[in-house]
Model the fold of this input.
Amino acid sequence: MKKTVFFIVCAALCLTLSGCGATASAAPAETPDMSEDNAHARAAYTEALKNLLEKNILPDGSKRGPETEYGAMEENQFAVCDVDQDGKEELILLYTTTVVAGQMGLVMGWDEAAGALRTQLREFPLLTFYDNGVLTAGWSHNQGKGGSFWPYFLYEYQPETDQYVKIGSVDAWDQSLGLEGYPKEVDTSGTGFVYYISSGETITWDHPVDETEYRLWRDKYLKDASELPISYLPLTEENIRQMTEG
Done:
């Protein structure tokens, strides 16, 4: 049941973003050549995933708790590709076989100079990547007034630090829920939604904006971007081994 709920959430987020300016079709992210840098990275990613399988240690070094009641390890997923568009491969892990509060989406990069993995992002595993280094991360819950709109954080990759920086977060109020106090006067576009944009961690309900203003804000980051279709693999020993065997 828990996994079913998670995939419903994923579907809801995809529908939400497709209605907010995302491009429906896009070419797959190109995998860089197996240069020395990428070979070292793949070896490190392989070791990190093996540590998760064999020692219950996640790639960012945190310890995995007891998850036996939440599904098998292969229900988690991973991918290796250049999601931040810096010409080097990253490791993406969608770790979902735990309670909702413990689920995470990890993006790990390889720091060649330091000879170590670097955590670029740690978020809930509802991640959507774009070809300009921007990503959206859906919240773990939608317990506000958004209805069919799933709230999310928006991040932008910063090459100077090799990390994703949070730009802001968005929630909405769906008029069709029938909740008292819907600010109809703000909804000048007549869409039945008003939006709440914040640069912080939390949303307040003090400053609703019309869809036109929301789209202007989102278009600053995603207007000309296309979604990257990521080919995730089940977290199995065989799939991990194939990373270095070609």
Summary: The chain has four helices and ten strands. Residues 1-34 have pLDDT under 50 and may be disordered. The two ends are 36 Å apart (CA to CA). The longest helix spans residues 36-55.
